[in-house]
Amino acid sequence: MTRGQVQEPQRQDPRRLKVRGLACGYGETVLASDLDFEVAPGTGLLLRGPNGAGKSTLLLTLAGLLHPLAGSVSVEGHDPDDGPALHYCGHRNAVRARLGVLDTLRFWTDINGATGMEPAAALKRVGLGHIAGLDAGYLSAGQQRRLVLARLLTTNRPLWLLDEPSAALDAEGQGLLATLLTEHLGNGGMAVIATHDDLAIAGLSTLALGARP
Ligand SMILES: Nc1ncnc2c1ncn2[C@@H]1O[C@H](COP(=O)(O)OP(=O)(O)OP(=O)(O)O)[C@@H](O)[C@H]1O
Predict the structure, then answer these.
(1) ABC transporter domain location, by residue (predicted)?
(2) Nearest CA to ligand 1 atom 25
(3) Mutation probe of ligand 1 site: the residue of 22, 48, 56, 62 with most atoms within 8 A of C-beta
(4) Which of 2, 16, 122, 130 has the fewest CB neighbours in a 10 Å radius?
(5) Domains of the chain: residue spans and CATH
(6) ipTM above 0.85, yes or no
(7) Residue 50 carries which DSSP code?
(8) pLDDT digit string (tens) for 189-202?
(9) Shortest-distance atom of ligand 1 to CA 91
């Protein structure tokens, strides 16, 4: 730096998923407790653990679809004027059988906000461009999963909560998922992903949930 130049302070992205003292479960059944973690821009968290450990339950709690049994979840630094902070993609693909593939994506995009890719371009990106007019009910399991990935692309939201996103995806589809996640994190996004598969992506740490007795 030459004399007289003022160095701009590094603009820190203030957004964070912040979890404090969180317990989640159903009624008297506590599946996980005393959870304290943060997910910062450009990073993600993998939820690991055996069947029934509570990964989906934790994701639902992070998404605000289940009340915490204790503690708090917040997405700090997110401007509500920018719309909802997160995408939640659960086990089910939320596909209506008699609605076309492109129309399904347009339907979601109309609801969620057209802040990302054009639906037709997003379909091509996930490898479904050639069947845009097909009724979504005729998609294979892996193709339905790809359609869900396209939903992430048509509406920009900083935090992706993904439950088994690679389920039913072939090797190429798993590579696509890794690429989309890498790009999302590279753009300052955040992610929490429950999976039994390997996801070779930089910037991920792991939270292991225990087995139930
Ligand atoms: N609504 C509910 N009421 C009571 N118990 C529930 C409810 N939903 C799920 N459970 C139980 O909570 C436990 C954790 O389920 P969860 O789906 O979170 O596990 P998971 O770690 O995601 O498992 P998997 O790897 O099989 O997807 C299971 O024993 C399940 O039966």
Answers:
(1) 17-212
(2) 51
(3) 56
(4) 2
(5) 17-24+31-85+158-208 (3.40.50.300), 95-156 (no CATH)
(6) yes
(7) S
(8) 999 999 999 888 99
(9) 27
